[in-house]
Amino acid sequence: MIAGFLGATYDWVKAAHVIFVIFWMAGLFMLPRYLVYHQEGMGDPAEAARWIDRENKLRHIILTPAMIVVWVLGVLLALNAGIADGVPGLGWLHAKLLLVVVLSGYHGWAVGYARKLARGQTGVSNKALRMMNEIPALATALIVVLVIVKPF
Q: Which of 18, 40, 115, 148 has an alpha carbon within 20 to 30 A of 74's alpha carbon?
């Protein structure tokens, strides 16, 4: 049985998890907006180069490191809750993990699209990019409800 293995460190691990979720979400809110501005500025090579630099810094300094820490700490918390032991009443946690997988996929898509823009290629309209900017906000709202309310 793994459940409860964090003991007295549980609150510290949970606090760190929440802190890095905030960092990750900040990056996921920023990068799609950067992509819109980058795509709009592709007619000016100097401006496009500045957006490439900004996107790379955001990705390397905040976005990807925060996502990795979120996953590591989140897996520890899920194991501590008993997800691997078949503890009942964790439907909310399964749903949360599904949404985190969706956010991770979105993260990967946004990073890939930034690389595509860096090569001078587009594929999504500015309006679609603006709409996709709402995905992290919706997922975050659902995750918070799942974690706080634990509806199932």
A: 115
